[in-house]
Amino acid sequence: MKNSQNHHGQRNRVEEEALINLKLPKELLLRIFSFLDVTALCRCAQVSSSWNILALDGSNWQRIDLFNFQRDIEGAVVENIARRSGGFLKKLSLRGCQSVGDNAMKTFSQQCHNIEDLNLDKCTRITDITCISLARNGRKLQRLDLTSCSNITDESLKALGEGCPMLNHINISWCDSVTERGIEKLAHGCTKLRTFIAKGRSFIDNECVVHLANYCPNLEAVNFNGAVALTDESIQKLAQSCTTLRYLCLSGCVNLTDTSLLTLAQHCTRLSTFEAASCSQFTDNGFQALARNCHYLEKMDLEDCVLITDTTLSHLAVGCPRLEQLTLSHCELITDDGIRQLGMAPCAAEHLTILELDNCPLITDASLEHLVSCHNLQRIELYDCQVITRAGIRRLRVSLIIMLIILI
User: Fold this and answer.
1) Is residue 274 over pLDDT 70?
2) pLDDT at residue 316, rounded to an integer
3) Which DSSP string corresponds to 230-267?
4) Reported pTM
5) Exposure string (b/e) for 67-79, b if CB count within 10 Å is 16 or more?
6) Sign of CA dihedral 201, 202, 203, 207
7) CA separation for the pair 234, 182 (Å, rounded)
């Protein structure tokens, strides 16, 4: 009985599938399949021989993200995908696929010559061989993520500079074997760079920044997190040359002073995100200049900027009406008066969603009362603010809920 039912069900599915094939032209089915992800396509490929052909058609494999399958992805899988998708493939993410090596990537670069966006984050087995092959075959490459690819050296950046003139985004964070020489070769050849990310790289020095400033004037997003060797001279050069900067991370660049902020304020007025955690020499004077000229600022991380006071908050309140996220953790000179000025600012009622005040010992319940006007506040961090009470937090929570109900 069960076998009969199974046979009957299979026959119905075949008839329904055949009906779909008759009613819908191949072109329309392909169009429908183009909206499916990798998992759904693989399932469709198992329905019938005709759907197998449609689902595995290269036109359906233009954008592939294999992060969810990272533990299962071997080199052979990447090679099969490359042969199947060929010139159709434009975006591939192998983030976390640690079993993929140079042989698979050589096949990939030879087959997928139209690749534009490639994510190799934490593909720790790849070496310069991969980048050299990409440079030879992938002249359309625009975005490349090499985060934590520790075997990548200057030879890779040299090859990319020579072979990938369209490259506009690169991430070489924690690529421990790269030096200033490689940065120069990359910048010299990839003059269209708009995003340069090099987090955790102590080798980033003034010469690296000057190379980027000289050759890549269209930079919009730069991350030098942890570049302890940088001084004001290089940031001045960057600001003067790359006036379209919108995102800049200088967190951990401990030798920078207000001179950098003054130059940024003068030349980079379109800044929207500025991260300066642990820049302990920045003062109110520098942030006053930044607030006066950079009215598009939306996100600021000033954690451990230990010299700033309420004066900085008063300038941000006046000059940065779009401010959405502000981190002031470990800014121990901030008091209730600074939070009061922030709570009265134009950004408070309309935009401020995240405020981090961890380890600000002078903050009291009075600050929470000043934040009642922040109708869009989604998160406030008060860890180790020892004067803050549970009652104060409860009153703020109730006030914000009431405000939300009134606004709705």
Assistant:
1) yes
2) 97
3) --HHHHHHHHHH-TT--EEE-TT-TT--HHHHHHHHHH
4) 0.88
5) eeebeebebebbb
6) positive
7) 18
Beta bridge partners of 325: 299, 354
Buried b (16+ CB within 10 A) or exposed e, 359-383: bbebbbbebbbbbbbbbbbeebbbe
In angstroms, how far is CA 195 from the centroid of its own chain?
A: 10
Place of tokens 């490689």: 182
Nearest to 272 by CA among 346, 322, 197, 340: 322
d(CA 296, CA 408): 28
Yes or no: say if 209 and 186 are a contact pair by the CB < 8 Å rule: no
Say how far apart CA 66 and CA 285 lie, in whole Å. 48
Per-residue pLDDT averaged across 377-400, rounded?
91
Distance CA 311, CA 288 (A): 8
Considering only 13-27, 124-138, 179-193, 256-270, which range has the smallest mean pLDDT?
13-27
Q: What is the DSSP string of 190-226?
A: -TT--EEE-TT-TT--HHHHHHHHHH-TT--EEE-TT
- Rounded to whole angstroms, how far apart are CA atoms 389 and 365? 7
